[in-house]
């Protein structure tokens, strides 16, 4: 996952956790606007989420943030 997407995803996870607590769930779609304006980036996130890590549609934001920070 490219550095810019990692930074954006971590910031979004941080925001969700701050607003809704440690148990909040998140989907990789949260990292994007409600329109497909960068299909390559969307596919990169989808591949990391679905193919590489086989995550469920919704996962705990805390778990996702820690995975991204650790470089997984």
Can you offer a commentary on this structure?
With 72 residues, this protein is mainly alpha-helical. It contains 3 helices and 2 strands, in the order H-E-H-E-H. It has helices at 3-20, 39-52, 61-69, and strands at 25-26, 59-60. It has a two-stranded antiparallel ribbon. Helix 1 runs antiparallel to helix 3 (61-69). The longest helix is centred in the first third of the chain and has 18 residues, at 3-20. The chain starts with a helix and ends with a helix. The model has no long low-confidence stretch (mean pLDDT 93).
Quickly list its features:
mainly alpha; two-stranded antiparallel ribbon; globular; 72 residues
Q: What shape does the CA trace take? A: globular
Helix/strand-derived category reads mainly alpha
Model regions low in confidence, pLDDT < 50 over at least 5 residues = none
Determine the number of helices (DSSP H or I, runs of at least 4 residues): 3
Biggest sheet, spatial arrangement of strands: 1-2
| Helical content class | 55-70%
Radius of gyration: 11 Å
| Beta-strand proportion | 5-15%
The overall average pLDDT, rounded, is: 93
DSSP strand tally: 2
